[in-house]
Design goal:
78% of the residues lie in helices and 0% in strands. The relative contact order is 0.14. The two termini are 35 Å apart. The radius of gyration is 21 Å and the shape is globular. About 2% of the residues have low confidence. The chain has 2 domains: 180 residues, Growth Hormone, Chain: A, CATH 1.20.1250.20; 203 residues, Growth Hormone, Chain: A (Up-down Bundle), CATH 1.20.1250. By secondary structure, it is mainly alpha-helical.
Length: 394
């Protein structure tokens, strides 16, 4: 089993995990093309993948106990390729066809967002596992930058040409078929903690943290462009540069994640939450253009730290047979947070502050600081329980 080839395959899959976000750049063009279609239906091109990702991220964990992970990955990749090609060739004919393609893209996103993490948890241990989780996060951010830039360039020719980026699934499918093990035994390390074959409070606590984190983070992603325009700082290109800064910071952080985790240990997630909260607070309290770039770096650091750290926490809380299911629950919680964020935050903003964008950033800052405190308290309980389990084993 060539570990470098396995790493290459996992990272190749990870580079396509954010491919559904390329549709955000062409929603206005789709609206013009399908002039008589309601705007809410047009937006479903982007929201359907997020919804399907929730379901299939959750379902892929239990499925992986009956179906080899490699088979699930290949199925997910073929779903993504098929969805992209349907949109490319037939998407301009009907909005219904375009929505069907989004369903297939959501299936791919849900399955492979879980399976890449599950494969890392199964095949790598200790510091190597943490380093791979961080590198995976870096590749997700780097892949997102390349895909969004390329799809935007292609959309300038014709909007449905943006789906040409889905041809990238072809080499990734070939790499995965060639390099992923079919039924590789999970890697092992000596561990005296009590890990039963059932899901436990640590998994569900981590899922709650991930859900709340993504709910508050998505405020930034859905409102930063509006803030830039309303403040007179620039146009869509300015927002694109700010978002690129976030992805770049996430990519660098992901590469260094293993080192951060070794230093911060149980405080990895709380520190990342505090930095994210500081970024949101700076937007609310200062809000200059330079500050928006600094906040973007804070958001990128937080995302590239919390995602792998949360996954590792959930995976290490159960035995090898339940890791994929634990990871599936946390991944589904992240997707659910993205979906629920506009619903929750818009409702609060409309009822309390007349729909103020600034209020959403303030609320997110408070939310991040609160989750950080909750996580510190939760970690103390978890560590105490682990020590008690070790004493009982001894």
């Amino acid at each position: 089993m060539d570990r470098n080839r396995i790493k290459f395959a996992i990272l190749s899959i990870s580079s396509l995990l954010m491919v559904s976000m390329t549709a955000s750049a062409i929603l206005a063009d789709i609206q013009v093309h399908f002039a008589g279609v309601d705007e809410a239906i047009i937006q479903m091109v982007l929201t359907i993948p997020a919804l399907l990702a929730v379901f299939f991220a959750f379902a892929s964990g239990p499925l992986s106990m009956r179906i080899p992970k490699k088979s699930l990955v290949i199925f997910g990749l073929f779903s993504g390729l098929t969805g992209g090609m349907i949109a490319l060739i037939f998407g301009s004919m009907s909005i219904g066809v375009l929505l069907c393609s989004s369903v297939l893209i959501g299936i791919a996103q849900g399955i492979n967002s879980t399976m890449t993490m599950a494969l890392i948890a199964d095949l790598f241990v200790g510091d190597e596992s943490g380093a791979m989780m961080g590198l995976q996060s870096a590749v997700v951010n780097g892949g997102s930058m390349v895909l969004v830039f390329t799809s935007g360039f292609l959309a300038g020719i014709q909007w449905n040409y943006s789906y040409l980026v889905y041809l990238a699934f072809i080499p990734v499918i070939m790499i995965s078929i060639r390099n992923l093990p079919r039924d590789a035994p999970p890697a092992h390390e000596e561990d005296h903690t009590d890990k039963s074959g059932k899901l436990n409070a640590t998994v569900f606590f981590t899922a709650l943290v991930m859900f709340l984190y993504r709910t508050f983070l998505f405020v930034y992603q859905t409102n930063i462009a509006l803030l830039v325009v309303s403040s007179g700082y620039g146009d869509a290109s300015t927002s694109g540069l700010i978002n690129t800064s976030m992805s770049a910071a996430g990519m660098v952080t992901g590469i260094l994640f293993g080192r951060f985790q070794r230093v911060l240990k149980h405080f990895t997630i709380p520190v990342a939450l505090l930095i994210s909260g500081i970024g949101m607070l700076l937007i609310f309290s200062v809000g200059t253009l330079n500050i928006l770039f600094i906040a973007a770096i804070c958001m990128g650091f937080g995302m590239a730290t919390i995602m792998p750290a949360g996954t590792l926490m959930a995976a290490s809380a159960v035995n090898a047979g339940m890791r994929a299911t634990a990871i599936a629950i946390t991944t589904a919680a992240v997707s659910l947070g993205m979906f629920m964020s506009p619903i929750i935050m818009n409702a609060l903003s409309n009822s309390v502050a007349d729909g103020s964008i600034a209020f959403k950033f303030m609320l997110s800052a408070i939310g991040f600081f609160s989750i950080a405190l909750m996580t510190v308290a939760g970690n103390k309980i978890i560590v105490k329980k682990q020590l008690q389990s070790k004493n009982m084993v001894s």
